């Protein structure tokens, strides 16, 4: 195994939008950011903080991918049973009795454990890690 290259990552897990940036310790001022595809031509440094679950309540997608897929399902009236969680971070803000049993609602009011939804958002963080690793591989070849 080769030498490890250290990478610093910053996450902005926001109420409405989320994003991340990273740099390698060898070049700390060269900051890399992800660019999210927001439609046909729009590029954004942030993506909506939303999670889409399929009918089996399994993770499907995060951010623009989640919103776009849900919109596509709704256009065909096949979105019944799918769960879209938006602004779920805010439901924790006013809750003075947070616990492992705390739930957050999807856009239709269906409650799911907050820990599960936030854990599924970790996929966003893993995606950034994969991007960082891929960039590192290209950068140091």
Protein model, in words:
By secondary structure, the chain is α+β, with helices and mostly antiparallel strands. The protein contains three helices and eleven strands; from the N terminus they run ββββββββαβαββα. The strands form four sheets. Strands 1, 2, 3 and 6 form a four-stranded antiparallel β-sheet that branches. The protein has a three-stranded antiparallel β-sheet with strand order 8-7-9. A hairpin with a 5-residue loop joins strand 7 and strand 8 (59-62). The two termini are 14 Å apart. The model has no long low-confidence stretch (mean pLDDT 82).
Could you list some keywords that capture this structure?
about 140 residues; four-stranded antiparallel sheet; 3 helices
Listing every helix as H and every strand as E from the N terminus to the C terminus, the arrangement reads: EEEEEEEEHEHEEH
Summed over residues and divided by their number, the pLDDT gives a mean of 82
Q: How many distinct folded domains?
A: 1
Specify the biggest β-sheet: 4 strands, antiparallel
Beta-strand portion reads 25-35%
Q: What value does the Rg take, in angstroms?
A: 17 Å
Distance between the termini: 14 Å
Low-confidence stretches: none
Counted by DSSP, the helix tally is 3
Shape: globular
Structural category: alpha+beta
Helix content: 25-40%
- What's the number of extended β-strand segments? 11
């Amino acid at each position: 195994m080769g030498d490890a290259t250290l990478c610093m990552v910053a996450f902005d897990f926001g109420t409405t939008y989320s994003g991340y940036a990273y740099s390698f310790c060898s070049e700390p001022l060269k900051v890399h950011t992800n660019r999210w595809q927001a439609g046909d031509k729009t590029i954004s440094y942030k993506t909506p903080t939303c999670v889409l679950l399929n009918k089996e309540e399994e993770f499907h997608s995060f951010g623009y991918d989640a919103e776009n897929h849900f919109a596509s399902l709704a256009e065909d009236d096949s979105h019944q049973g799918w769960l879209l969680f938006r602004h779920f971070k805010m439901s924790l803000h006013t809750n003075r009795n947070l616990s492992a049993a705390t739930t957050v609602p999807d856009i239709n009011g269906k409650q799911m454990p907050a820990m599960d939804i936030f854990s599924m958002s970790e996929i966003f963080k893993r995606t950034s890690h994969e991007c960082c690793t891929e960039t590192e591989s290209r950068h140091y070849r």
